[in-house]
Design brief:
47% of the residues lie in helices and 20% in strands. With 255 residues, it is an alpha/beta fold. It has one domain: 3-Layer(aba) Sandwich (Aldehyde Dehydrogenase, Chain A, domain 1). Strands 10-9-8-11-12 form a five-stranded parallel beta sheet, with helices on both faces. It has a three-stranded mixed beta sheet with strand order 1-5-4, with no helix packed on it. Strands 2-3 form a two-stranded antiparallel sheet. A hairpin with a 2-residue loop joins strand 2 and strand 3. 44% of the residues are buried.
Length: 255
């Protein structure tokens, strides 16, 4: 599906690769110092396009009304595809963050297992009826946030991406994934694999770039309704401040 060469990495938006030749950055092999490939840099305009795509997808009745077992089937097919392509995921991570092959492959298989876990969790989602003191019924109904921003680190990228993307999709959200600029390729492959496994277009978009410009544009976008971030404390504090001003929930794993 991706039309990019071995020398480039494009954004993934609305089910297609979107290359931005006007602005790119280098992916560098930390073991050799050599450039792996050129990666598209997502500006605020690209982020806005990705969010618009996600908003359309999450509001589509085909997704909103999809039965849990159908959604679970999609997540399970994603897991199976990740397992089948574990060597490819491992190679990309090894080239970009320098971990040994055995650990990269183990993390790819672990990420696939995360999708399997949340595929099973899909069918346990429901509402709750709580005791009431009067002649009335008290019920809690759980609904998806809508468009969720997921921002991941470089050290265990695919593991973190799976832990953010899988539960968000299981709950009925759409996800804009911004991987670390050090390790973008695994996230892009994940989005392609998910689309090929039957995930409707727009429900998982990937924007690549730095935190200062791309990440900020994503967190500040008015249609992003929740942010999940793993990374440094200073960046997490900044994201928390933006989320507080916007009155949206945020999940932070810092250190």
């Amino acid at each position: 599906m991706q039309d990019q060469s071995d020398q480039t990495r494009a954004l993934w938006v609305d089910g297609v690769s979107v290359f931005t030749p006007a602005r790119t950055f280098d992916s560098v092999n930390p073991a050799t110092g050599e450039v792996n490939w050129q990666v598209a840099f997502a500006t605020a305009e690209h982020v806005a396009g990705a969010v618009a795509s996600a908003k359309r997808a999450v509001n589509d009745p085909a997704w909103r009304k999809m039965l849990p077992h159908v959604r679970a089937g999609i997540l399970m097919r994603i897991a199976d595809a990740m397992t089948a392509r574990a060597d490819e995921f491992a190679r990309l991570q090894m080239l970009e963050n320098g971990k040994v092959w055995s650990e990269c492959r183990a993390q790819a298989l672990s990420a696939a297992s995360t999708f399997r876990f949340y595929a099973s969790a899909c069918e346990t989602l429901g509402s709750e009826v709580t005791p009431s003191r009067g002649n009335y019924l008290s019920m809690t109904a759980y609904e998806p946030y809508g468009v969720v921003a997921a921002i991941t680190p470089w050290n265990s990228p695919l593991t973190m991406e799976a832990q953010k993307v899988a539960p968000a999709l299981a709950a009925g959200n759409a996800v804009i994934l911004k991987p670390s600029e050090v390790t973008p390729s695994g996230a892009l492959l994940l989005a392609q694999v998910a689309f090929e496994a039957g995930l409707p277009k727009g429900l998982l978009n990937v924007v690549t770039g730095d935190g200062r410009e791309t990440g900020t544009a994503l967190v500040e976008h008015p249609d992003v309704r929740m942010v999940s971030f793993t990374g440094g404390t200073a960046t997490g504090r900044s994201i928390a401040g933006i989320a507080a001003q916007r009155l949206i929930p945020v999940a932070l794993e810092l250190g």
